[in-house]
Amino acid sequence: MEFFAVLDSQRALRRFRSDPVELRDLRRVLEAATRAPSARGAEPWVFVVVRDPALRAEIGRRYRAAWDEGQRFTRATDADRDVRTAAHYDRMMRAAAELAHSLHEAPVLIVCGLDHARLGPLAAPDGSLRAPAAAYASIFPAVQNLLLAARALGLGTTLTTLHRTFEAELKTLLALPDHVEVAALVPLGWPRDRFGPTRRRPVGEVAALDRWGTPLPERD
Amino acid sequence: MEFFAVLDSQRALRRFRSDPVELRDLRRVLEAATRAPSARGAEPWVFVVVRDPALRAEIGRRYRAAWDEGQRFTRATDADRDVRTAAHYDRMMRAAAELAHSLHEAPVLIVCGLDHARLGPLAAPDGSLRAPAAAYASIFPAVQNLLLAARALGLGTTLTTLHRTFEAELKTLLALPDHVEVAALVPLGWPRDRFGPTRRRPVGEVAALDRWGTPLPERD
Fold first, then answer.
1. How would you class B66 by CB atoms within 10 Å of its CB: exposed for 0-12, middle for 13-18, buried for 19 or more?
2. CB within 8 Å of B73: residues ≥ 6 apart
3. Which of A169, A186, B70, B82 is the most buried (most CB within 10 A)?
């Protein structure tokens, strides 16, 4: 596929057909992830491809509980400064709620880890991050490559971070060492819904020339 | 360009020709950035396209000072747990040092901001992040889209985060409001060096099936 056709149509897809996903495709998607940049070229990523139904059920059960808890927290804190009134919000939240109750049905869960042992001065020995932005800048570009490559192959995904509330249990389930932080959990499969085009705020609203508040002209 | 041809050849390019970059191309690259996913569809990104030579000189001066300071810190903390012995390291660090002393020569600096005011429950009113991974997962995929789209157009970039040490001054220079955190600074221009293919650790080293330590087979 042409590059911009992939990029402009990649979107969150949260409902999957039960058809299996071949390892050959999974490896291509993971190889794409590894093409991303990372601070100091450390490549501090690890990926666990979860296909085992029992593991997916365990993760799905915890994810659903985290969703229910998260909804309570969100309702309590969101009153201001939020996107709850945006046009897309109710539809997106219904789809996300549906995913929370069916995560185990995704044929594959890709667990994306950030290996602190490869971060050098960006991580402290106690597991905290000295430079969080630089550290996450070394894993989320890889995750985005993964989402885009999946879309190029026709595979649906969505980037989730709700596992943070049960990260310790998740790491135990997957035998991940202490020095790996789970940055994202990406369900993946052949989608039941369609890719974009996506709708976003226009560039004119989110970009400025030289100083914030100065509009970016259309052309020179 | 074909999607995987872009993805597999995107790499950090840090030396630029002085030729100007047209606003039309810059807008296409920024539009690509906005196609990224974000938590709750909040699109919490802002971009400042810095072309003004005086501003670039100011930023470049601070960047060089931050680099010199960072080198001292890195040398003091890196002894273990690091990539300093990796084959790519010396070459990469020479290129990064060269960039640190010539940043102002990049015809464009794209300042990528994370707007806390759009993060709802992920951000606290005091400017801290309640859910850093989810927050950075809502900006670095956009930055990666930007790098990839630039490569698709033949434009060179590199993702940097060294501005963190002079972020307050940078925000003043660019008139960015308090609630915007600068997540990345991306120099951009027509490159003097070539795109990849990139070399990375093989998938077999960084991925596992179901549990860490279980090799991912080549095929089903």
1. middle
2. A121
3. A186
List the single residue in A39, A159, A175 with the smallest CB-CB distance to B211.
A175
- CB distance B175 to B113 below 8 Å: no
Q: Give the up-direction half-sphere exposure of residue B211: CA atoms within 13 A in the CB hemisphere.
A: 9
Q: What is the ipTM, given to two decimal places?
A: 0.97
- From A163's Cα to the closest Cα of chain B, the distance in A is 10
Residues of B in contact with A119 (CB under 8 A): 81
d(C-alpha A10, C-alpha A166), whole Å: 28
Sign of CA dihedral A167, A168, A171, A172: negative
For residue B78, the Cα-to-chain-centroid distance in whole angstroms is 22
C-alpha of B101 from chain center: 18
pLDDT in tens, A166-175: 999 999 999 9
**Six token digits for residue A2:** 């042409």
| Cβ-based contacts of A159 with chain B (< 8 Å) | 37, 137, 141
Contact indicator for B27, A218 with CB cutoff of 8 Å: yes
CB atoms within 10 A of CB B167: 17
- Give the closest of A123, A149, A220 to B22, CB-based: A220
Residue B112 tokens, joined: 């990528």
Residue A89's φ and ψ, nearest 5 degrees, are -65, -50
Distance CA A143, CA B39 (A): 14
The answer to whether the Cβ–Cβ distance between B212 and A174 falls below 8 Å is yes
Structure tokens at A18: 């039960």
- Domains of chain A: residue spans and CATH: 3-206 (3.40.109.10)
pLDDT digits (tens, 9 = 90+) for B74-86: 776 655 455 677 7
For residues A112 and A145, give the distance between their C-alpha atoms in angstroms, rounded to a whole number: 12
Per residue in B75-116, pLDDT (tens digit) is 766 554 556 777 788 899 999 999 999 999 999 999 999 999
CA B13 to chain centre: 12
Is residue B183 within a helix (H) or strand (E), and if so which, with residue range?
A: strand B180-189
Note whether B144 contacts A144, CB cutoff 8 Å.
yes
Which among A41, A84, A120 has the least Cβ separation from residue B88? A41
Q: Is the C-alpha dihedral spanning B89, B141, B49, B70 positive or negative?
A: negative
CB contact under 8 A, B159 and A137: yes
Angle between helix axes B140-152 and B23-34 (nearest 10 degrees) is 140
